[in-house]
Amino acid sequence: MGRGYQHGFSTPGDAMYEKEGRTRKAETMIRILADHFGSTPLASLNALDVGASTGLIDSHLATHFQSLVGIDIDAAAIAFATTTFATQHNLQFEQGDAMQLRFPDNSFDVVICSQVYEHVPDAARMMTEIFRVLRPGGVCYFAAGNRLNISEHHYHLPFLSVIPRPLGHVYVRLSGRARYYYEKHLSYWGLKSLAGRFEIVDYTRKALDEPLRFGTDYMVPPGSPKQRIATLIARFAYWLVPGYLWLLRKPAGA
């Protein structure tokens, strides 16, 4: 089964158009990035969002950065974003290919790549492009799902991402969710390999330990059984964490 582009991934009424949830994700990004950069204000930095979709996350992010560009292969989503957020003058959107970024080398201080790698035809090629356009010392905010997950979060089918892909195609077809299983998830080890050229600054454990500080309390309520279980898994079986929050830093000498 060939893996072309997901040109129409977002559809009206789905999560990509849900403002509250997207704003929460954006706030987590801001808090983690602000913690990492410390005394360097985000307002002095230029950012790129690879996989901007409908622009709801970028609309919030742009209030913190000097400038932000959002790209996506999904023409309908970018048209919505361009029209809806036209008054934010430090924010622009364009239809673009994450595997062939049009920007020069060393263009951005920050690149956002949140839950995107499994949607592109060639994730390694995308990461090479992200590395290229980042300035030395800059970081990619990389939120990534783990293949070793009980429930695949796109189709909500148990063990879909774990079983062999040919069976996955049959599984989603029989469930009536899709014609075939497009998304291609990686395990913890696969993600480490994908990020191989970067220095990994791990915020996964921090976000689980201090959800109020990093704005992840909507996913792991403080003091809840879910938080206790998640922190235990992160401590003793990190490779089984359902998703990772990493900053991928381009080495200063690169």
Descriptive notes:
This protein is an alpha/beta fold and 254 residues long. Helix content is 34%, strand content 20%. The protein has nine helices and nine strands. The chain has helices at 19-37, 56-61, 75-84, 123-133, 165-175, 188-194, 204-209, 211-214, 225-236; strands at 46-50, 67-72, 91-95, 108-114, 134-145, 151-152, 157-158, 199-202, 243-249. It has a seven-stranded mixed beta sheet with strand order 3-2-1-4-5-9-8. Strand 2 (67-72), helix 3 (75-84) and strand 3 form a beta-alpha-beta unit. The termini are far apart.
Summarize the entry for a quick read.
This protein has 254 residues and is α/β, with parallel strands linked by helices.
Please give the structural blueprint.
Elements: H1 19-37, E1 46-50, H2 56-61, E2 67-72, H3 75-84, E3 91-95, E4 108-114, H4 123-133, E5 134-145, E6 151-152, E7 157-158, H5 165-175, H6 188-194, E8 199-202, H7 204-209, H8 211-214, H9 225-236, E9 243-249
Parallel strand pairs: 1-2, 1-4, 2-3, 4-5
Antiparallel strand pairs: 5-9, 6-7, 8-9
Helix amount, in percent? 25-40%
How confident is the prediction overall: mean pLDDT? 94
Across the major sheet, the strand order is 3-2-1-4-5-9-8
- Report the strand count: 9
What is the chain-wise order of helices and strands?
Answer: HEHEHEEHEEEHHEHHHE
Which regions contain 5 or more consecutive residues with pLDDT less than 50?
none
Strand content: 15-25%
- How far is the first residue's CA from the last residue's CA? 37 Å
Number of separate helices: 9
